[in-house]
Write a structure and sequence with these properties.
Elements lengths: L6 E7 L2 H10 L4 E6 L2 E6 L2 E7 L14 E6 L3 H11 L2 E8 L4 E7 L5 E7 L1
Parallel strand pairs: 1-4, 5-8
Antiparallel strand pairs: 2-3, 3-4, 6-7, 7-8
């Protein structure tokens, strides 16, 4: 069976400069590459392509079912602390869940909701 070697989210954002700054300053991503209308970012094995779509419906307007991704990490407490210091908006506080994960959720400035978890 073929192996998946990398996962990359492709997210529509209203203001590319503003969103790129948020991902690099608040979420700890680094800029890998820029192209007209696009920012290619990464943090470890988590890769994101931000595409400027000024006419898109903001994810914040999509309601409760606007989760975009679940990211598994190796030190959930450290990441949570880092995001607290950065002023990231939390949708769920850090907690142990009955399905064997310790997790928390955030909302980006564009309204994308991301969950982060670590296996217990």
């Amino acid at each position: 069976m073929s192996e998946i070697t990398k996962v990359r989210f492709v997210l529509a954002v209203l203001d590319l400069k503003r969103s790129t700054h948020y991902y690099t300053s608040a979420l700890g991503f680094v800029m890998d590459f820029e192209a007209p209308g696009w920012s290619f970012l990464s943090r470890g094995n988590f890769h994101v392509m931000l595409g400027e779509c000024t006419g898109a419906i903001p994810p914040i307007d999509l309601g409760d079912h606007s989760y975009y991704g679940y990211i598994t990490v190796n030190d959930i407490d450290a990441l949570h602390g880092e995001y607290e210091k950065s002023g990231v908006e939390f949708t769920q506080h850090l907690d142990n869940k009955p399905w064997g994960m310790r997790e928390f959720g955030i909302r980006t400035i564009d309204g994308h909701r991301l969950m982060f978890g670590q296996e217990l």
